[in-house]
Design a protein that fits this description.
Residues 353-376 are annotated as: Disordered. This protein has 376 residues and is of the alpha+beta class. The protein has helices at 10-14, 32-43, 57-60, 63-75, 84-95, 114-117, 144-157, 169-172, 184-188, 269-272; strands at 6-9, 49-54, 79-81, 98-100, 122-128, 131-136, 174-177, 198-200, 204-206, 215-219, 223-230, 236-243, 248-251, 258-260, 280-287, 290-297, 304-307, 309-310, 313-314, 318-319, 325-328, 333-336, 340-344.
């Protein structure tokens, strides 16, 4: 493979209003050719280029462009997938390709750690004076809470869900149950649907399993996910909810109200064995819309440290004295027994805490009608 071989996110290019015809707000196939030509002009005519697009792009293009899409696909010049992101990144990782796209791939950082170690492989385009040129996308390391937020927003916007965190917050903050006893989702979750409902025209809320109507059970209680990970690799060991103002124990033992880490998968046992049977207690609080996790060290044998968040990294760890209460914010994490970490997830729509006010959140002001929270 050549040094400047690349994979192009075709859907991203065709939707780009920055390319000619500039400002046109629907996908245009002819936006693709000047991008390919400019890349080869800058990096050599021998640079090989893989083209990858979402299947849905064909239906969004004008009729003539749609025919070109199908012709390129039949000829093998174009690869497609239901969601092209995974194929773009898999090809780039396997063949060490550059990526031509405007996306910053926030929701893929967990599965593709190489994104942050190879930011120079990601390129966006500019168009001025009749010419296409390239610049770095601007990939920077992200704390895992930001990655979690991006993952959740991607889940909400998925075709089977189609929920907007602002316009549909009443639906997001409602507990739902599917009354269909034969539904595959309800065979797993008898009392409450624990996946996002699907939204259909005229705000009809249906079950993602059987597509039948759902029964509203009232507001979701305020809670947040807590994530346990291996310290060295950031591999997720366990994710569990903590409800507002309800104490919870964590360790390697059975509790009336607690989390037993001895039950995790076998491959994590070596790390989890360093955690005491009663390691710590925790309780979720809120300061306005911001979650705080109050933690008490219970005298564990290997101790607990807190690492305060600083940008995408952490300050030096500080040992927590047994019996002392500390409060964690979204940017902090605990180190248990030197082997695993514990942090609050950045996912913020699992409970009924308020949407950030105008100017106070990254998802846009309340009442906005067109929210695009992910970098494009």
């Amino acid at each position: 493979m050549g040094e400047w071989d690349a994979v192009v996110d075709v859907s991203n290019v065709c939707w780009s209003k920055a390319l000619p015809p500039v400002g046109l707000e629907f996908p245009v196939w002819r936006r693709l050719e000047p991008v390919i030509a400019a890349w080869r002009r800058e990096h050599g005519r021998d640079a090989r280029i893989e083209l990858v697009a979402d299947d849905s792009l064909a239906a969004q293009l004008q009729s003539g462009d749609s025919r070109l899409f199908e012709e390129w696909k039949r000829s093998g010049r174009l690869r497609t997938a239901p969601v092209a992101d995974h194929l773009v990144l898999d090809l780039a990782a396997a063949r060490n390709l550059h990526v031509i796209s405007g996306d910053k791939w926030r929701d893929h950082r967990r599965a593709h750690a190489w994104i942050e170690t190879g930011p120079d492989r990601f390129h966006h385009w500019t168009y001025s004076d009749g010419a296409v040129r390239f610049r770095p996308v601007g990939i920077v390391p992200l704390p895992m809470r930001k990655v979690s937020q991006a993952e959740e927003l991607k889940e909400l916007s998925a075709p089977r869900v189609r929920l907007d965190p602002v316009r549909h917050r009443d639906i997001i903050q409602t507990r739902w149950r599917c009354p269909n006893e034969l539904c595959p989702e309800m065979r797993n979750w008898r009392e409450e649907l624990l996946v996002w409902p699907s939204l259909r025209p005229r705000r009809r809320v249906v079950c993602p399993g059987c597509q039948g109507p759902l029964t509203a059970l009232g507001p979701r209680p305020p809670h947040r996910d807590v994530v346990v990970e291996l310290r060295n690799t950031r591999t997720e060991v366990l994710r569990f909810p903590v409800e507002w103002n309800i104490p919870l124990l964590l360790g390697r033992g059975e509790f009336a109200k607690g989390v037993d880490l001895a039950q995790v998968a076998v491959e994590f046992h070596a790390a989890v064995r360093k955690i005491s049977r009663r390691h710590l207690s925790m309780r979720l609080e809120f300061a306005g819309s911001e979650p705080l996790l109050e933690v008490v060290e219970l005298g564990s044998s290997r101790g607990t440290e807190i690492e305060r968040g600083r940008g995408a990294g952490y300050e030096s760890p500080r040992l927590i004295e047994p019996g002392r209460r500390v409060r964690m914010t979204l940017g902090d994490r605990l180190v248990l027994g030197g082997s695993v970490t514990l942090r609050l997830s950045g996912r913020r729509f699992r409970g009924s805490e308020p949407i950030p006010a105008v100017g106070d959140g990254e998802y846009g002001p309340v009442g906005a009608t067109d929210v695009s929270p992910l970098d494009q």
